[in-house]
# Entry
Amino acid sequence: MRPKLNILSDQSVEQIIAEGFELLMNPGVRVHNDEALKLLADAGAQVDFETQIAHIPESIAWRALETRPSEFYLYNLDGERVVHYGGDSVQFDPGSAAINVLDSETQEQRQPLTADFVKFVKLVETIPQLDAQSTAMICVDVPEEIGDLYRLYLALNFMRKPIITGAFRKDTWWTMKDMLVAMVGSEAALAEKPIAVFDVCPSPPLLWSDLTCQNMIDSARHGIPSELVSMPLAGATSPVTLAAAVVQHTAECLSGVTICQLAQEGAPIVWGGSPAAFDMREGTTPMGAVGTWMIDCAYTQVGKALGMPTHAYLGMTDAKIVDAQCGLESSGGALMAALAGVNMVSGAGMMDFESCQSYEKLVIDAEIIGMAKRLIGGIEARDNPIALGLMQKLGHRADYLAQPHTLKWFDKELYLPSAVIDRGSLDSWKRKGAKTAWERAQDRVDELLATYQPSPISDDLRAELREIATSAANKFGMDELPPLPLE
Amino acid sequence: MSGELLNKITLSIVEGRPDEAVDLTRQALADGLEPLTIIDEGLTAGMNIVGDKFQTGEYYLPHLIIAASGMQQAMELLEPELKARQQAAESAGVVVIGSVAGDIHEIGKSLVGTMMSASGFQVYDLGVDVSTEAFVAKVKETGADILGLSALLTTTMTVQRQVVRELEEAGIRDQVKVMIGGAPISQEWAETIAADGYAEDAVGAVELAKQMVA
# Structure
């Protein structure tokens, strides 16, 4: 049986959904995008174009919930289905858009450069526990205006896994789309077998900015999946009660699904978010807070009740170095997400409030993810009767290590960690250099990177990607992109 | 008697009852207390206690914000009275603050504004997505000592540089100190765009502001 966390009662879920629908009408949703306002008005919403507020009747949102797919797949570059958005599938990808990287030598944060992100993409490729890539770092050796598309450009050169990404501007979305199309051959091929998801983030409370709304509309019209990242901050930009924060999340996501489906019926869209229980001392947005995990699990349950694919930012820490706080916060969030059945859990490697990526944390998180995936594998009978056959045969002999039954089942029943997790004796740990988790993680990063298999894409495709990205760079005063660190 | 009323005002601020702070302030005026006395011995005394309790860890942000709100509402009542007497509350300095064009993030900027006004600064909070022209105009109009620019996105932090340049164009760059903040902002960025300072959080911003006007 698979363990499953339902943090809300059915009755609470119903009430949260009902109140979410009511918020769509009163006070309505702020939509700072004329195209979306027009779509909503044409569909019958009361739209005030002056104040840019749309009052959306329940019926319009319900219709959107009928036309959105309840599941879809992401494909790797070999055309295989590797990520399933829907049901209780649970998959993990790294946290995205870090503005810093934790330097492996100094353990200090610094701004990422091209080589840092390329190393990260390669590392993600080699980590079996990670199901997808993300545009995880913003490199500062290119103009800020192309920071979004440059991440994707780099990742596309080195990845096989699908990627979770997002645009920071309206125009750069098109460049990013062009690169994705180049990867798979045509717009139709991209829609049929998507290799990327675009995150779109409403602003709390109840606001769609022009940029993110347009990204969602453009993605919908190209059949590229969008992932809603609604982020109520309980006690700051949403009510402090966790249930009320989930109501706000529900309304923001309902409005997103509605605008998306009005732009293109049947476009894939994910019920996701990155809420936080606002810290009442520091004024920060802790991702490692238990309140944050609870809001995430609750909105996931709401999304599932509405038949939506789900996403959450979990498994992160607010710690500044890879320490005990880092481990405990990351494990708590990842385990909760797995138990809640979140389809895509974003956050691996991320620390310091979604602002810093770490290679070492990423490989430690891989172990947490391995354990989380094992946990939701649940405890199965395997044999019937469960134990009688074997135990009555062996009687009182403790001879299980020698049994074919053990060989058959041990690597399915037990999660087998890498050397990041130390389970040796004290003597053996000392003999291997008395290494801390950080040092073992450093070793693991090097070990994994050595196994990286180069991307299968052709030189022609590489050149085409470079041309597309370079022409965008030219618009913002950069003649040549930094060279790709190719071996 | 007046001492007791002032104590009650102080307590209403410390215990977070803004409506009561306003009612008691109204009553104090009716009783003939001087506005400056009400401010110094009632409201500000309360804010100082709240500030201390926050520093020691007893109070959290909601305590601080609701106290500042009580203080602000009471001040609205007192300002016309001060004007009529041609007096002014002592101000640590004039601050114009807002999130730059294209940035709709409010919380950090508002927190800084509230903390500053609770620390005796006269704060003009222009809100979010504030045009560069609006910042420059407000600085001119108020003769501000400090301009606070917030940007939460890597895409809007470049606008902070634009504002600094516009201040130069307008010929008022040397009349105002520019402080910047926001998640992607660093001291390095402040130096790059020739801002006068950067603070990590709201408490740091107040300290920086005090240094700037000292």
The beta strands of chain B are 93-99, 121-125, 146-150, 177-181, 197-198. Chain B has nine helices and five strands. The mean pLDDT of chain B is 92.
